[in-house]
Amino acid sequence: MSQPLRMSGVSIDLKLTGGRVAVVRDVDLSVGAGEIVCLVGESGSGKTITALAAVRLLPRVAGMRSRSVVIDGTETRDITDKAFGALLGDRVSIVFQNPMSSLNPVLTIGEQLCEAYLTHKRGSRAEAEVRAIDLLERVGVSAAADRMRQFPHQLSGGLRQRVMIALAFMCEPALVIGDEPTTALDVTMQAQTLRLLKDLARDTGIGLLLITHDLGVVSRMADRVVVMYAGRVVEEGTCEEIFAHPIHPYTRGLVDCAPAHASNGGFLSIPGEVPALTATPVGCDFRSRCPSAHADCHREPPIREEGARRWRCVMDRKTAQAAPTPASAALEAEG
Amino acid sequence: MIRVILRRIPMALLVALTVSILGFALLRLSGDLVRELAGDTAGPEQLAEVARAYGLDKPLPIQYLNWLWDLLRGDFGTSLFTGEAVSSLIATRAGPTIILALASLVVAVAIGVPLGVLAAANPNTFTDRLIAVVAVFGQAVPNFWFGLVMLVIFAVKLKWLPVAGDDTAAHFVLPVITLALSIMPQFVRVTRSGVLDAMGADYIRTARSKGIPTRRLYMRHALRNAILPVVSLSAVTLGFLLGGSVIVESVFSINGLGLLAYSSILSNDFPVVQAIVVIVSIVYVFLTLLSDAVNAWIDPRLRG
């Protein structure tokens, strides 16, 4: 089975009134078959736009360059939008953040599910309906046959997101991208929906790329974690390693800020903020918030590798892990 | 959908009733009907006689109820000048206006909606600007001028089409084009903004992410959402057109409702004016009801 997603050297800029702004710089990202990869980072880190770039759903103002974007064994870098359309929804599909507005209000659930199937698969409407009802049942929608005839406004948010998930799996894709799929749901629905997505991904053996800023979600879902900061990947590794032994100062700050780690009952945060996109400093983007920053950080940091583990920092593993974390630094400063 | 209609019928009846009262009252307030009917030279006895003959001596509410009662039985009275029954007068004059109105609406929608979609699909490009220019031209150019220019070119110079009258389909070509041009721009604009709005919606991104081809994206996913205001606009426009266009009807010598209303107003033929006002209002009310029903059929959220 070929790798569901492998993209390398992806850079994206936005044409704004002030000129071009680089929002993603030289990102490599891959998802293996049967693997759940979480793409983590705070708002503006470029995680969503990176995923949208993989499926060519970038806004009009965005421009993208890449060395390669391979989806399920097909190099898509140079193919036309029309040829790409044949992969979209078929080999790769996406579950968006807001289920309330992501379904077409004037078409029934059944019409929308069947349309996705019939766009790519040869088959009758009846076959599409059987598949749709089967999938709806698998994602836990009761009375699936009746739901098929209903319109989105007749369903709750949680149900609509289940429909969106079913929609994503209609054509048995190799890769499913979840763009913060549970952010808009209430907490009780979040856990259920994630469980569902994970089970479905495991059952079908697809690659799942999950975009989130919620480390609780990451620890429950991910096989591998990719951390982005200011448009670059700063660290990646297996879920256990990232949580147990984070290396990059930013990752260490993130992990320490996760509520489970803030054992003293307070909230931790990383002081400072993400550099303005227009600033694009030379050197490490995190240096303004990094307690270990020194003169070397004004040069481009090297990408260090240890097996599946990669991070982008002047410090090696030992030095980095011995350094104070940004979050604890914040506490000391206040304390 | 039937539920939507049933729920709105009481309101529609109320509106129709209100309009009939207003129409009746406005006409009575617009001048001394007895004096008009009897002529300037009439003495007091003659005036009283005329008033009695037309029921104008009774209090206004009674006059209204009498008139309404006749109206409900299909009796619109008789024209004061031709002596013809108003109902048959309107029936003969309504034909050309209905043809003109329906044909113009169909042409305007058939051209305006696709142009609107095309403009929305290429926002702020040359195509979009060109369509905007056509729309502005259609709206800015006066009907009578455009109609006359068309007449001179196609009827007088080229002799492709008849100059005046309403006997054959060929007679309607130029007036339909003239009228359609003036109402089309609204359809372009409403469609363009509706489709633009829809194309920015999340569900379009979803459909796109399913690999649904662009054409289908527009026709099935966006237009279906954007068409609601177009339906409402069609109803209002049709109501407006059914009232008759005095200008277009007079330029092309079409014996329609517009000219009838115009001449009846000038000659103070109040039974005719009253009948036209009431009929056109009821047509409006009915069309609004129809457009609500069509919209409910398109958009399930309006079925409630």
Question: What key phrases describe this protein's structure?
Answer:
heterodimer; A: 335 residues; alpha/beta; Rossmann fold; 2 domains; eight-stranded mixed beta sheet; five-stranded antiparallel beta sheet; globular; B: 304 residues; mainly alpha; MetI-like fold; 78% helix
How would you describe the overall organization of this protein?
- The complex is a heterodimer of chains A (335) and B (304).
- Chain A is of the alpha/beta class and 335 residues long.
- Chain A has helices spanning 47-54, 81-87, 109-120, 125-138, 144-147, 157-169, 187-204, 215-221, 239-244, 249-257, 317-322, 326-334, and strands spanning 5-16, 19-31, 36-40, 62-65, 68-71, 74-75, 92-95, 175-179, 207-212, 224-229, 232-238, 303-306, 309-312.
- Chain A folds into two domains: 5-227, Rossmann fold, CATH 3.40.50; 245-334, no CATH class.
- Chain A has twelve helices and 13 strands.
- In chain A, strand 12 and strand 13 (309-312) form a beta hairpin.
- Chain A is globular.
- Chain A starts with a strand and ends with a helix.
- The mean pLDDT of chain A is 87.
- Chain B has one domain: MetI-like fold.
- The mean pLDDT of chain B is 87.
- Chain B is flat.
- Chain B has helices at 2-29, 33-38, 44-53, 60-72, 86-121, 126-140, 143-157, 169-199, 202-209, 214-242, 246-251, 257-266, 270-298.
- Chain B is 78% helix and 0% strand.
- Chain B has 304 residues and is mainly alpha-helical.
- The chains are: A alpha/beta (335), B mainly alpha (304).
- The interface between A and B is medium-sized, with 28 and 21 residues.
